[in-house]
């Protein structure tokens, strides 16, 4: 009868008929009274979305005190119910670090085991090396299932600490979870998704992991370790070690045929986004959403790309669809806020960004958008406060620090701005936008040579990344201003012309070009440039003042030398004579 009920319950679970499975599981538990059947019934309640009944069942029988699986499930119920203090009380605040394994410890054990062996003994031991290497560790006395539950409980501790804003402790819990069980992807995902580590720290952590500890068939253990490592590499920062990232992507996409997998496409889109290749990145995210319209892992990047490329209609359609289908998702209101920000309806955008951050206080993109609304209205202090919150939530990414630096630059707090920008540079030294802002800071400090070096570097990085020329024309304009201030007028004029060729047609650019031409004693060309600028903005006071100066200079200097005047006079007389001769010949042809 017991086997019959278990098979019946399992069959119902396979069809997600949880109510029926609970009914059968309850009868099975009444018959057996076993811990295994009690945990299975509690897990069925959990799968059905009921987190109170499994807690009652487990605590009534005191299962969490004698079973790791029961303790993990009970703590998970507390987390789902938002009872983080109760979850920590059940889990304890100490991680079982004695169960962790690292690459260094594995190498030391291997050296210790093979020391003193003859070459024949060494060769003989090679086949079973991994099995014997683990016997010196305390974790070897634990069952594999218990180790996974211990890793899962480290992950739950991390969630609890994160909810209490203890992000450093949360980070250590997530890292210990992965060290204990390399396949604890939930913990790895929290580390990467929430940017709790900087790029260098991410790679150091990855190198410290013992992928050989993966429990797999010994015949393909090495391949499983390499495959898992490559998967984790795709989750790391796209700025550090681009060659290794490209190699991992190549292996996964070609050898394992994962080129069309959503996570691979998203990783490639993130790489393209960091390189300012927005059109190609949007193609990738659109492919992901075409296959899975509500892939919320992809949604923030997709929204950022639509905003960057000014695709307002697509933003509206996506936001409207999400509001209808997923009103409970913070990403939905991020989309609505992004649409209003793109249409410059700042109060509405702020409302919806705020709503997204209230639904999930640790949703970094919502805080970034919320801060952008204050920056758009020139509310520097409030923008700085919001960016600071994002910096606290996303400690491993340079973007909040970059935005803080930009705000301080706008307020002319140069010392504070440089401090923020330096912090961002230590996290990421290959972002062209960041290098440009450091150049702006140097420009405002009067260090024009340093500014020129930074602008040149930003342009070079953008070109190496394959970004389109229009993506970095603002940097080229900054370079032109720095060259002009350094009295390298011909080089500055070349840059101004390139900026205008790339489509930056505004009065300020033409006025700056005219100022450079005046410094080169070319008042006529300066006048022409100023007329182009004033055609765009007739009331611009700077352009008007420069035009007066150019016309005054024109009045005191001849437009042409005497030789040029004689050549033009001769050319005009020749053209006039030719015209008269043509008219006479036409008269003779009239019948």
From TrEMBL:
Pfam families: ANAPC3, TPR_12, TPR_8
Positions with biased composition (Basic and acidic residues): 127-138
TPR-type repeats, residues: 330-363, 432-465, 473-506
GO terms of biological process kind: anaphase-promoting complex-dependent catabolic process; cell division; positive regulation of mitotic metaphase/anaphase transition; protein ubiquitination
Record's GO cellular component terms: anaphase-promoting complex; cytoplasm
Keyword terms of this UniProt record: Cell cycle, Cell division, Mitosis, Repeat, TPR repeat, Ubl conjugation pathway
Region feature (Disordered): 111-141
Protein name: TPR-like protein
